[in-house]
Every structure is written in structure tokens, then in C-alpha cells.
Specification:
Elements: E1 2-10, E2 16-23, E3 26-39, E4 42-49, E5 54-60, E6 65-72
Antiparallel strand pairs: 1-2, 1-6, 2-3, 3-4, 4-5, 5-6
Length: 78
């Protein structure tokens, strides 16, 4: 997992709502937030950017740090 900077809010139920994160020296704006779950390695959040790329972000509470676990680029239409 790659450590990243994330701007997010947590609601009263404890769900994360990331709005943006920094990756590869650029800012990725989060268009929508999907499924969330707690696992042994942290709180996982699936997000989409404005062009349909999917990302799995992980918040590790004991470290107070966010990580990028996986990025999936949308296939180019041809």
C-alpha cells in the first residue's frame, strides 16, 4: 500500500467521505464514494474520480494515515 494525503470527513456513523487525495504528484477529485468495510488492515473505501477511474483507499486508525491500496483505470473507449 502507498501512503497518500486524503481530504475526508467522517459522518456520525463512522463512514468516511473522501473528497480528494494526492497521488502521483497530482490531485484526484472524488466524484462518488462506494462500498466501505472494516478489515484487519484498516477501513477500506471505494471511490470513483470524474472520469470513472476506481480507487481503493484504506484508513489505518492506529497510524492516523491513509493509503492507496489499488487504482483501476477506466478502459479507453475506441
Amino acid at each position: 500500500m502507498e501512503p497518500i494525503d486524503v481530504t475526508a470527513q467522517f459522518d456520525q456513523a463512522g463512514n468516511a467521505r473522501p473528497s480528494r487525495f494526492t497521488w502521483k504528484k497530482g490531485i484526484v477529485l472524488v466524484e462518488s464514494t462506494g462500498r466501505q468495510w472494516l478489515a484487519d488492515d484498516g477501513w477500506h473505501v471505494l471511490v470513483l474520480d470524474g472520469v470513472g477511474n476506481a480507487y481503493e483507499l484504506v484508513f489505518v486508525a492506529t497510524e492516523r494515515r491513509w493509503y492507496l491500496r489499488q487504482a483501476t483505470a477506466k478502459p479507453a473507449s475506441g
